[in-house]
Amino acid sequence: MEIPLGNRWAKNNYQQSKVELEKAETVLHSMARKIELEIKEALRGITTNHKRIRVTQESRRLSQKNLEAEEERMELGMSTSMDVLAVQAERAAAQTRESKAIVDYITSLDHLDRVLGTLLETYQIEVKERTEVSHAIQEVRSWQ
Prior knowledge:
By secondary structure, this protein is mainly alpha-helical.
């Protein structure tokens, strides 16, 4: 005895395909939101680090003025070499903070390039064929 199944198989197949399509669309939307969030975070990092550079530059400038004033006070006998050394240390710390802000800014620019997928273009790097790259990697490893 045969029982006709009709279109059940086709309907089930259609329903399964529909569910898989909805899952794929959900994943796609999720990835799009993640990428958008990563780009916004990278841009926020660039903005923040750019502001840090301006602030630390001003801090360094003021610490330099402070050092010059302290050295002048020492020449007039109103300050000691220890006071000058303390102000020099403050200026060195300000210079270090400025350098770190600049490095962080450059790093945040690189992060944006990575998120956008433009890092190689930004630094004008061309990737040769994989076989040449593999050969170069093996050659470098042989140096060790």
